[in-house]
Amino acid sequence: MAPPSGQSSSQPLPAREQALFKKIVKCYEHKQYKVGLKYSKQILSNTKFAEHGETLAMKGLILNCMGKHDDAQDNVKRGLKNDIKSHVCWHVYGLLQRSDKKYDEAIKAYRNALRIDKDNMQILRDLSLLQIQMRDLEGYRDTRYQLLTLRPTQRASWIGYATAYHLLQDYDMALKIVGEFCKTQQPSDYDFEYSELLLYQNMILRESGRLELALEKLEENSAHIFDRVAYLETR
Asked: Which helix (H) or strand (E) holds 24?
């Protein structure tokens, strides 16, 4: 998903065209591709904005979703050339590279986008997904840490960061992160997310070889674990 045009663009749009651009993004998100192309045409048909980089990039992204690969590439590359300081253009270029399975190039594009908009959550998430796919676990850890600092109250931020250390087989750090997050939780009755968190914590303990402690913690937390099949299998 490409974010809306931001201040990083060297081609800011007037209010009317900016509203149209936001509609293009929404059409992409909701897979209303033909409508999105109609809005992009309304911007690009104006001679003042015929080379508007972010609109060309979004048009290309939509064309790619419609199976028009060559036209998509042409529009996205043209968009990037016209607005190389836009995080949107770099992000979209990365999405196309990912679509073509050129993962290293996609990562480079995401990094270029983040140099312009370093705290963009969507780009960071997209980068983290490619890093884990490419087994760049150190890079994944660093990106998940950045996501945690940006959204410290979200459960997914903590779990993602713990998972990074888990995959690096740094079990102590993974357990520390999960433990710190557990301290912030006040589980309600039938809190299935908390139940899953406790089971994940137990899995890390078992993988680290601390089987007795894992069993002890399982019994200690049994009242909060609602997946009884997983509970019994773990025992």
From this structure: helix 15-29
Distance of CA 198 to the CA centre of its chain: 25
Looking at residues 66-78, what average pLDDT do you find?
97
* Token pair of 51 as six digits: 């080379």
| Contact present, 9 and 48 (Cβ < 8 Å) | no
Q: What span, in angstroms and rounded, lies between the C-alpha atoms of 23 and 39?
A: 7
Residue 203, token pair as written in the block: 């899995």
Contacts for 58 with CB less than 8 Å, ≥ 6 apart: 2, 21, 24, 25, 28, 36, 40, 79, 88, 92
Distance between CA atoms of residues 234 and 206, nearest Å: 9
For the whole model, what pTM was predicted? 0.87
C-alpha–C-alpha distance, residues 6 and 172, integer Å = 40
Overall residue count recorded for the chain in this entry:
235
What the block records as the tokens of 129 is 């997904």
Report, as an integer, the average pLDDT of 54-80: 97
Token code pair at residue 1: 């998903």
Query: Which stretch of DSSP H or E encloses residue 110?
Result: helix 103-116
pLDDT tens-digit series, residues 155-197: 999 999 999 999 999 999 999 999 999 888 877 766 788 888 8
> Residue 196: in which H helix or E strand, if any?
helix 192-207
Amino acid (1-letter code) at residue 201: Q
Helix (H, G, I), strand (E, B) or coil at 170: coil
Tell me the CA distances in angstroms from 37 to 55, 113, 235, one per residue in order. 10, 24, 56
